[in-house]
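re: that chain from earlier
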Amino acid sequence: MSELAPPIRTKRPEFRNINALTDLPSYRLPPAGWVSILHRISGFIMFLLMPFIIWMFDTSVSSEISFAKFKAVFNIGAGFVPGFLFKLVALALIWAYLHHFIAGLRHLWMDTSHDAVTKEFGASSAKFTLVLSLGLTVVLAAKLFGLY
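^ sequence. v structure.
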């Protein structure tokens, strides 16, 4: 009579808690993950800076005098805050709007045509979203800082 060999036991996978300080920096996020996270961040930036957006709109359309003050804030500054800091905040808003808008269109497209969505399309559309939002931001930054 032959005896069967005992089954080979493999080591079971070990699940542990993630240490955010050591594990997360080494984790490689796919482009779609970056777009998703940046979509949330851009929405938060726009929400957080809503008082600044309302101030810019109100000041720029109230009268010619208030528009002149608005331009002076961006050129010279206000109080102890130099003008380039206002331009940097406006640039952050420009990026946030562009990224949020383009990523939102990407999400809407993927929601409406879910049969055509593949892993490759998700990666390529995420890269397109990142490149387009950053490219348009660079073009508008050049205009904002007076390069053309």
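The chain has a mean pLDDT of 89.
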